[in-house]
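User: My instructor asked us to take a sequence, write out its structure as tokens, and then describe one feature of it. I'm not sure where to start. Here is the sequence I was given:
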Amino acid sequence: MRAWAVILFLVIISPVFGVILADRVGYHEPLDVAAEKLGLKEVDIGYHTPFEDYTFPGVGPVPGYILAGLIGVGLIAVLGEVLKRVVAK
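Assistant: Let's start with the prediction itself. The structure tokens for your sequence are:
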């Protein structure tokens, strides 16, 4: 239970680093920077995720970041539980 409290705490504070401070210091993803320096253009391949750039549609960046994190952690937890049960059999 203590691990879940730590995970929840980290998800809640993640926008501080992923949104607020990243904007303040002008952080950009290294691959985006490399692509820009090489003059590469972004190509739309027709595949989009509902949580692009760790956001949640219709919600501001900070709560969206938290919701996307909770969904991601939840999916990993469910997958881990399913795999644990499969291996146990």
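For the description part of your assignment, you could build on this observation: The chain has one domain: 2-88. Try explaining in your own words what that tells you about the chain.
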